[in-house]
Amino acid sequence: MTSSSSPSTYGASRARQHLLVFAALAVITAIEIAMTQASIAASLANALFLAFSLAKATLVAAFFMHLRDDSRIYTAIFLLPVVLVLAFSTLMLMSAGGH
Amino acid sequence: MTSDAIAAKPARAWRRYLGWSTDHKVIGVQYMVTSFFFFLLGGAMAGMIRAQLLTPDSTLVSAEAYNRLTTNHGSVMLFLWILPVLAGLGNYLIPLQIGARDMAFPRLNALSFWLLVPGGLLMLASFFVGAAEAGWTAYVPLSVAGPDGQTLWAISVVLLGTSSMMGSINFVTTILTMRTAGMTFWRMPLFTWSILATSILVLTATPVLTAGLVLIAMDRLVGTLFFSVPAGGDPILWQNLFWFYSHPAVYIMVLPAMGAISEIFPVFSGKPVFGYKMIAISSLAISLLGLTVWAHHMFTSGMDPRLRVPYMISTMIIAVPTGVKIFSWLATIWGGKIRLDTPMLFALGFISMFLIGGITGVFLAAIPIDLHVHDTYFVVAHLHFVLFGGSVSGAYAALYYWYPKVTGRRLDERLGKIHFAANFIGTNLAYLPMFLAGLLGMPRRVVNYDPRFTQLNQLASLGAFLLAASVLPFLYNVIVSWVSGPKAGDNPWRAKALEWKTSSPPPAHNFDTPPVVTEGPYDYGEPVQVSLAATPAAAGD
Amino acid sequence: MKERTLLVIVLVTTALLAAGFWVAANVNLMPAEASTRAALVDQLFRAMLGLAAVIFLLVEGLLLYSVLRFRRSKGDEGDAVPVHGNRALEIVWTVIPALIVVVIGSYSFRVLAASETREADPIVVNIHSRQFSWSFEYPAEGVTSTDLHLPLGRQARFLITSDDVIHSFWVPEFRVKRDATPGQIAELLVTPSRLGAYPVRCAELCGVGHASMGLSSQAVVESPEDFQSWIEKTRALSNDPVTTFNTMGCNGCHSLAAAGAKGVVGPVLDGLGQRAGSTASGQDAATYIRTSIVKPGDQIVPGFADNVMPRNFGERLKPEQLQALVDFLMAQ
Amino acid sequence: MTSHSRTHEDEFRAGRELSLDHRKLGMWLFLASEVMFFGGLIGTFLHYKATIPSPESAELDTILVGINTFVLITSSLMVVLGLDAIQRGNRRGLATFLGLTALLGAVFLGGQVYEFVSLYRHGITLTSSVFGSSFFTLTGFHGLHVLIGVVWAALTLGKVLRGAYSAQDHVGVEVFGLYWHFVDIVWIVLFTIIYLI
């Protein structure tokens, strides 16, 4: 995740890369929808779904939003709240178990 | 740009403060003046509250009116006085302190101020439709019932939160991208550091409160069921959303004040600030820790018992970076050449009173004690020592310190010292008795109380009235000195930070030529070439 | 400065700090200790107050000393000797507070654990709260009362809930409070350790009656024998209209001399019997009073708000209780 | 951006030294706060999903919404392709792709409206249950963000047609792209926690 191709080298190659990312996103989404129709153990399915959405979000952020090439400061600014939200949601769920 | 043109004719310069301006200095002053108006308003409410509490069974105000007064006193003081006055200081100072021409997004900057105005008016307007009366904490389901003002209150707080988020985006962007040549991170004044830390908190904490307020507003306006208990709504959920913002809010309101104090001590001691890096880092530490402690406000509300102890520990740990700051300030004035001008007096007052707020904070974090004093006058005393003894003293110190920079005039020292004395005595007189009342069993937010608390409450009211009076010399001083005070010169305090290296008041472009920074902001008693080592690298020797 | 001066300063400071610690650790700022928990909490509180006093005196002392000792002399425009920091010192004042925090934290945790341990055969009390009164139900004894009576030395297990908004059950002498949250049941353990009657307070803002909520209730700790006789006395009165009036929470909002009720939120009920017949056209006094209890929305007395009085008394009152209550109010 | 006596060049030097553009930084900070805002709503939704049984969720049409998800992802692709185009100086390409972005965004909104209407027909409304409240609030706020994005795309398109942006100057497009992709990411998360899990 540390390729540092400067924005000037943008071009057809970059467009191809974006198409590949898009293909990946589309495929994952297709798999997800297929899984909802198939009968899979809920726990396994949910784990997969979470993993998938994490993968998709990461792809979009890394390639479409250029976090992969841009200053790490942008990444930090984006990740801090993500971590906080994960923590907050987990605690909400725990306190849901509380009563 | 309008302010340039008008600056050319100083005769009518004051007019630019009344309208839309994108000059950060104008906006800063607009913030400070507007928020001080709301300070007086919130103070008037406090006056009525303390008058009601002079006697145990007073009927001066009805129970309903009393709840509306306490609710709006809190909301106005927090959202319309402390937050905006500190935002105003930041607006005025950040570009000057880092040698920038203006903020990164001047129009956004003006917009965030002009959001403050409707937000404030909306909160006041609520008094005409039955003001919010569920406390500034707006606990559901009480706040979902309640009069229409409760809805206006929620919308108003959303507006004010949005305003401070816009401001924070501006602050961070400005600090990261607009520092002038040589202004490295480790040469930034500590006030700038504190605003950076605060902005991170604002951006991460405020949106969660906004989300919660949206839910309340929707429950009230379109009949959603988020907090409807019969439908399964969970009142504790609101408390989580609310405190996720409102505990960090305390640090949002005190960190910039600490930043201002950190500017003042070295100047009036003629010494470099002690442990510059530690102070800067402790601000960041407080911000991040501050995001992890919110549920210590809910020890009595039935949270998952497993979670209580971690929250207790994380809350207590915040005492450590706070202690680092206080000890560093002490070490800064130790062995200095101290001048006791008004800004310094308020700075010293800040330490001595914030200390009480900080220590009692650890008491509140200790769960067994909290289960007794939670929601009592002990908490009221604690939060006023933090926010009034702390934040407001800090704001006063900053206003006295930077007034000459803003106006080019000096304030009257005698009036300043009178103001300090009245403020210091009044604060302690008003809030110390409350600790005792709380411990002995007086709940907060009560319109009447058990007669055995009468003396304590009368002392508190006396202090409150003294605080009210203490504002008069300040107002007189600020207004008269602006018109006819003695000229201050560019750097009356012989300070070293960048804002003092331009004229007072600064020109529209802040600096006639972009400054190049070659030394730290606190290199007192230093030959310039050594000054690059304004860090603990030089520590100990 | 000279060693002797230094020594004196050190000695004086230590003496002051010690004195401060001793005073703070022995002064009593709390109300009576009426529960085993209260004793533990107060020990913790005094210990922390002692530490707090030391830190407070240390910081304020240093502050005052510096201000007096290091004043700039007239006409001195120079700077002081620059000191940028001191690694060792900074480590010390980071580590020591951290250690203090650890100590206080673990001590607090021990107190918490000790005060929440279950004892055998607790007496269970269901605490119901509503705007603006408490009632205490003893399911095992089949008794409900506006006062909380507890046998000395036997652990009480409170199950706390609310009918409307959040209240908070607090007896300062027990050193503990617990929120009464609608839709949830909160548990609280208290072992009374001292005979006496103590105030019951609502600590969470719950509306216009918040300050007066609990004025008509108190927590009474008594000997097991007295408690038993109180139970029997109260059970005998279970259909007594005054008891109904108070345990159903009417007293939280209405004032009625005959029931010793001082509520301020709803209409005064003294003399209701005389005026009830003429209040609503086409209704005799009994019908009017009965409707006002089970369908409070039908007639709202001018100057009072609708939707304040609960709508469910029809279900909550047994027929004989309702009848007795109506007759009782007729007689006022 | 601002009418300064000094040029951007030296005004934002400190930013360039950290390879930060102040406009992109501003947007990222805004997005950070948006993460927290949606985080609050998502936390609420999950909390109630865990505490209150919601049979209504069986009425949700995962296929339809899956297609909608696909549409939104495609619109994100359009934005990056548009950016690639203008970075090669191809303004017509940018215009085309921005147009497609707005179009696909509109299609997504159409799909959401259709979904909402059919749910209302099944009696699942904002006020029918806590599930209804949190479902419509969460998806509704996301829809609002898409709507804003569509308008923004249209405005950007207008500027392009008036000759704005070039291979050297296209930060405006990039900033819009950041917003649009963020809205896309939010939907990826919502799709998972609402429809899949």
Description of the molecule:
The complex is a heterotetramer of chains A (99), B (541), C (332) and D (197). With 541 residues, chain B is mainly α. In chain B, 65% of the residues lie in helices and 0% in strands. Chain B is globular and about 65 Å long. Chain B starts with a helix and ends in a 57-residue tail after the last helix. Chain C has three domains: 92 residues; 114 residues, Cupredoxins -  blue copper proteins (Immunoglobulin-like); 90 residues, Cytochrome c-like domain (Cytochrome Bc1 Complex, Chain D, domain 2, Orthogonal Bundle). Chain C is built from nine helices and 13 strands. The radius of gyration of chain C is 29 Å and the shape is elongated. The mean pLDDT of chain C is 89. Chain D is mainly α and 197 residues long. Chain D has a single domain, classed as Four Helix Bundle (Hemerythrin (Met), subunit A) (Up-down Bundle), CATH 1.20.120.80. The longest helix of chain D is centred in the last third of the chain and has 32 residues. In chain D, 52% of the residues are buried. The chains are: A mainly alpha (99), B mainly alpha (541), C alpha+beta (332), D mainly alpha (197). Chains in contact: A-B, A-D, B-C, B-D. At the A-B interface, helix 3 of A face helix 6, helix 7 and helix 9 of B.
Short description:
The complex is a heterotetramer of chains A (99), B (541), C (332) and D (197). With 99 residues, chain A is mostly helical. Helices cover 77% and strands 0% of the residues of chain A.
| CATH class type of chain B | Mainly Alpha
Q: Decide which structural class fits the backbone of chain A.
A: mainly alpha
The radius of gyration over CA of chain A amounts to: 17 Å
CATH topology of chain B: Cytochrome C Oxidase, Chain A
What is the mean pLDDT of chain B?
92
Q: Helix proportion of residues of chain B, in percent?
A: 55-70%
Q: Kindly, what is the distance between the CA atoms of the first and last residues of chain B, rounded to a whole number of angstroms?
A: 50 Å
Q: What assembly state would you assign to the polypeptide chains in this entry?
A: heterotetramer
Beta percentage of chain A is under 5%
Structural class of chain B: mainly alpha
Element pattern of chain B in H and E? HHHHHHHHHHHHHHH
Overall strand count of chain A: 0
Rounded to an integer in angstroms, the radius of gyration calculated over CA atoms of chain B is 23 Å
Tell me how many strands of chain B there are: 0
The helix/strand order of chain A is: HHH
Compute the number of helices of chain B.
Answer: 15
